[in-house]
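Before the break, one more example. Copy the sequence into your notebook; we will annotate it together after we see the structure.
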Amino acid sequence: MSKENILLIISVLLSIIIISFSVYIVLTLQSKKATNTNVEQQNTVQEEQEEEIKEEQEEDTEEVEGISFSQSAWIPSFDFENGLKSLEARKDIIREVNPVLYGVNNDGTLLNRKPTEEALKNFLQYCELEGIKVLPTVGSYDFRIMGSVMQSDVYIDKHVQEIINEINKYGYDGIDIDYERIRTSERDGYLAFLRKLKTELEKINKELSVTVFAKTRDNTQDTLYAQDWIEIGKIADKVRIMAYDYTLQTSTIPGPIGPIDWIEEVLAYAEGKIPKEKTILGIHLYAYLWKEEKASALTYSAVLNILKNVKGEHNAEIGEGYAEYKCSDGSRCILFYQTPEGVKERINIANKYNLAGVSYWRLGGEEKLLEQNL
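Here is what the structure looks like once it is written out:
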């Protein structure tokens, strides 16, 4: 083979190699570009999905935050002036107030427990200015009166209308019903009354709050039976559970007022009966002092005066303060009282059960019990 032919063949082979290499380079670059494009597209999709999840989480958070945890309090009619002073000092946390302004007469009319018209007017103006809701309490503590009213359709209708008239007259935001002496035989009448009242309140866009005794199981005992939590949970906008008086003031044996473990049992029983968004935990701010098997109720202000000369301590097991000492006359005194730590514990329990809030009995003489919540 001639030299010229050999050179020609070599030249052709080199050309083929160069072309193949060029094609390889081009294909490789295109493949990388396609891969990068796919990765970018995948990243974009992933980012979009993450953004959607984030937005959904934010929406869920907004929904949870929309159900705000509220703190409310009762003001007794017998200490209205001091209760108002406490409200003014606690206006940043107490956003609803329940002054006990009414009782019940045996014909269904309302028993007037209001302060003077001028005092009530000033109170309502203050609450309106501060944006504090007012749901006055109608309280009844007499079996005989409840028996008269709840067994008469005429008296029930009159009772409902009297409440509506007072709401319209004073511009209340609703009403709180606290009936603590109801026979088992009056259960149906009591629930019928609540349904009728709720129907009339809805017509004027007002709220119904119902206050009930605490319980840990189904019970056939008078008021505990009449206060059917499942039915009341359907009817009322708010249900306040008085998680105190575990040991009654009438007891001759001293004991805690609202021990923590018992409160947990009460709320566990309430689950599935009263909607959480309607359930409000009642917290006591008072004390019981036993002396010779008789107890008297004290405000925290009175407790602080005692503790100036007596050693008391917070009992973590029951979530209350306790003191035992010799009284001035030499007799044995036993004191169970609320503490700032105890209030905080109960608020934490209410949050643990995702409740709508807490309600304090009562404003007036609570001193610094609520200051840590400001």
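The two ends are 106 Å apart (CA to CA). The longest strand covers residues 94-104. Try to locate both features in your own notes.
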